[in-house]
Amino acid sequence: MPDIRVEHLSKSFSGTRVLDDVSFTVKEKELVTLLGPSGCGKTTTLLSIAGFQTPDEGRIGCGDDIFFDRDAHVDLAAERRNLGMVFQSYAIWPHMTVAQNVAFPLRVRKMPKRAITARVAEVLALVELSEQADRYPHQLSGGQQQRVALGRAIAYSPAVLLLDEPFSNLDAKLRERARDWLRELQHTLGLTTVFVTHDQDEALSMSDRILVMNGGRILREGTPEEAYRQPRLRFVAEFLGQCNFLTGAVTAGPDGTAILKTAEFGDGIAVPEQHAGPRGTIAVRPEDIEITQPDAPGSGPGGTVLDASYLGDHYQYRVAVGTVQLSVRSQRPLAQGPVRVRIPPGVATFVD
Amino acid sequence: MTSTIEQPPDVTAPVTVRPRARWMPASAGQAVVWLVVVVLVVGPFFPLVYSSLRSKPFYLPGGTFGLQAYRTLFADPLFWQAVWNTLWFAVGTTALAVAGGTALAILCNRTNLPGRKAYRVLLMAPIVIPPLGLIIGWLAIYGQGGYITQLVGQNLHLPVWNLSTIPGMAVLGAVITIPVVFLTVQSALAGTDSSLEDAARSSGAGPGRVITRVTLPMLRPAILNCTLLIFALCLEILGIPLFLGTPSNIDFYASYLYRSWTSSVTPDPPFVSAGAVLLLVVVSGLLILRARLSGSEQRFIAAGGRGGGAHRPLDLGRWRWPASIGLGAYIGITCVIPLLGLVLMSCVKALTTLQVPWQLFTAENWRLVATDPTLRRSITDSLLIAGGGGAATVLLVAAATLIAHRSRFPLRRTLAPALIYPRAVPGVILGIGFFWAYLMFTPGALVRNNLWGELIALCVRNLTLAYVVIYPSLARINVEFDRAASSSGAGWWTIARRILLPILRPALLAAFVLMFITLLGDYDPVVFLQKPGTEVLGVTMLQTWARGIVGPVAALAVVQVAIVAVVLLLGARVLRRLRRA
């Protein structure tokens, strides 16, 4: 299985820059997610890799092949890139049965009839559709259609799998199952995979690495944990779940850490990072903030719970501390009224 | 789960990596299709433009280049009169036909109108009846000396209408062109996902609101397409002013050119070519306007592959039956009665309200059709052209439409205008163009004076109809279908052959049926090409009528109706089966 190298990709549509110097590498057998809001350039990037968009600048390589190189005038036709792709609409051909859909990439490659039949049976077993082989797409459920699309994409064992929001047409329950199932399949087959989504839960749960995009640029690259814990940018922090931001004066702490002081948190918040400059902004996840009864032992400023909502496995609180409002997530039921708020050392991270 | 799955299957990769420079055509086949279309469509216009800029026809010695022909044309007050007449007629006809055709298509496809299935077939009647036949039928019934006009005026002493006025002709023009609108809109409706309408209804919108806010906006490309087509059809209409306008001296653009051509002292007067060239300019403007207005076709693709499915029609409430009866009356008045008039005409010596028809019965007209070699040959020749030419045209246009809208062929954008063009140009003018093209270019000798030349002229002239049926259906096919095939490793031709054309099958069949019917009834492009031995139905009818022999013409029209009815019934049957599959 090869790697995918995207270098300095740029593209404009009628004056609007949709890709701005996008570069990244997807290593062998890795699942990399392009995550971002709609219009961020993630789909354009994917379509450029697949060969359905022609970038204005840059290079795209896959293993030993050059897919696209603006300067060398190479633009390999989509059908020669040997990729498997699952489309948002699934794009299962309505005039073909499930088996015919899956067989198509093999027939195009002039595989012997008997081998096709065997391979289609294998793939259909793999995507758990053996029973539906002779059905037409409109006779299938959404989840089944999605699996047909996946079966077709992997039928000829492509080098690379491209997924364009494959779960967006599924209901929540099914989506979670399909997610685990696809992740397992990707591992089993060892496919180098590029996955496009706007759903941060999908991105966090499935990816080896996440690329958060906005405005045609890659803002953050890293493992799900890195991206979530150290988003570095306000946009990334907000896009990957809820986040609180506090701005204040920064002083150096012991062992290369920093202390951020605000009017509300006069004792300072310990941040395990160095920071240049006298002022800074930190990001704190709601679940990292501790709130306790006001009379409980410990430090931290007092606050007021403005409202609470029960979400099954936790409570979501809105807490006012001085002039700022924080969202806090806790297992503990608390009544509206005064509380003590604490940001433990090490949970905050600086953002720009 | 089998363990073999983890090994790649032994697919030897036959797809060799051969980078292709971007400016190269994606395939030679695409270039061939493009070239054939462009040569056929553009070819005839060169002799036309050339001759409009010469002071004399090109075969005469001593001609010079200049704008003299245009000056002659502009100096003629009759020309300006014809222009105004044509514009009023075209505006009236287009408004009536587009509004009527769209309303009828929605009524018959999206509401619970009683008898809508039958009406869907019956509303095709104006194209079932060949244009000349319908005109003659209308003259026989509603003309100045028509059957019903006589009944109302002479027997009942009521004020009567005058069909030979511009509003009168616009009504007949709309009746003739409504099926084109109906077919286009219906074909667009058949593919749009009715769950979009259901969604609007569940948001609380009543049937009227659903139609105006959801259905009609979705139909915009189809409506816009046929508005421009109908308007262009009106500019070129020849039969109506020749038959209906003549009694009151109303000429339209096409009939003015036709009359100037046929009654000119010198053959092929250059100012007729100049008039034709001017019309080309106007039509080009319309096409550019169309391109600007229609905008992005992507917006009208309903999400998901297969549109339709079972949907509940919109409820018309208490208007159900009045609407149905009104629609029935419309079909009766516009088609059934004139058709009866036609049948009657083919069996009697003269049409009059003063004597009961069976006393005037004669089989002479039918005997003539069966025995006269010219009349008989016109039937077989027309069948040959309609069947063979129709099928070939649909295949060519389908390929060209796919190249125009679903390929990366460098010159693809030129194809859509090339496919719209021929039908927007007056048939007579296109016919003259072909006449000169066959004369001027060497390969023309191969098709001059035989049926091939007429076949080519008729097919080129009508290929637009195939395009307007195929294109809206193609636009609704999600482009991800192509991409899925492409990323599966299929090249363009494989995608066309295995994915797009099979999905387009209903549209292809509809296009063929429309082509067949039109080719059987069309006549104006071949008025100047027909030679003894290569007769086609329309021209034979025109020439026979001009000699004052009306009975056999009515009989020929009845034959046309019968053939077309059979083809339509068969086509509808196959179409139903295709759509069910």
Q: What structural keywords apply?
A:
heterodimer, A: 352 residues, alpha+beta, Rossmann fold, OB fold (Dihydrolipoamide Acetyltransferase, E2P), five-stranded antiparallel β-sheet, 21 strands, B: 581 residues, mainly alpha, MetI-like fold, 25 helices, 69% helix, disordered N terminus
List the helices and strands and how they pair.
The complex is a heterodimer of chains A (about 350) and B (about 575).
Chain A: E1 4-13, E2 16-26, E3 31-35, H1 42-50, E4 57-62, E5 65-69, E6 74-75, E7 83-86, H2 98-108, H3 113-126, H4 142-154, E8 160-164, H5 172-189, E9 192-197, H6 200-206, E10 209-214, E11 217-222, H7 224-229, H8 234-239, E12 244-252, E13 258-261, E14 269-271, E15 279-284, E16 290-292, E17 302-310, E18 315-321, E19 324-330, E20 337-342, E21 349-351
Helix pairs in contact in A: 2-3, 2-4
Chain B: H1 28-42, H2 45-52, H3 68-74, H4 77-110, H5 116-122, H6 125-128, H7 131-142, H8 147-155, H9 166-191, H10 195-202, H11 207-218, H12 220-236, H13 239-245, H14 253-263, H15 270-294, H16 320-347, H17 364-371, H18 373-406, H19 415-424, H20 427-440, H21 451-475, H22 479-487, H23 492-521, H24 537-546, H25 551-580
Helix pairs in contact in B: 1-18, 1-19, 2-15, 2-20, 3-15, 4-5, 4-9, 4-12, 7-13, 7-16, 7-25, 9-12, 9-13, 9-21, 10-11, 12-15, 15-19, 16-25, 17-25, 18-21, 18-23, 19-21, 21-23, 22-23, 23-25, 24-25
Largest interface, per-chain counts? A-B, 53 and 43 residues
At the first level of CATH, the class of chain B is Mainly Alpha
Spell the H/E element sequence of chain B.
HHHHHHHHHHHHHHHHHHHHHHHHH
Structural class, from helix and strand content of chain A?
A: alpha+beta
Q: In this structure, how is the largest beta sheet of chain A organized?
A: 6 strands, mixed
How far apart are the termini of chain B?
A: 33 Å
Structural category of chain B is mainly alpha
Q: What count of helical segments of chain A does DSSP give?
A: 8
The quaternary organization reads as heterodimer
E-strand count of chain B: 0
Name the CATH homologous superfamily of chain B.
Answer: MetI-like
What's the tally of helices of chain B? 25
Largest sheet descriptor of chain B: none
How large, in whole angstroms, is the Cα Rg of chain B? 25 Å
Order of strands, main sheet of chain A, comes to 7-8-9-3-10-11
As residue ranges, the low-confidence spans of chain B are: 1-25, 296-310
Beta-strand content of chain A: 25-35%
CATH level 3 topology of chain B: MetI-like fold
- Mind telling me the CATH superfamily name of the largest domain in chain A? P-loop containing nucleotide triphosphate hydrolases
Portion in helices of chain A: 10-25%
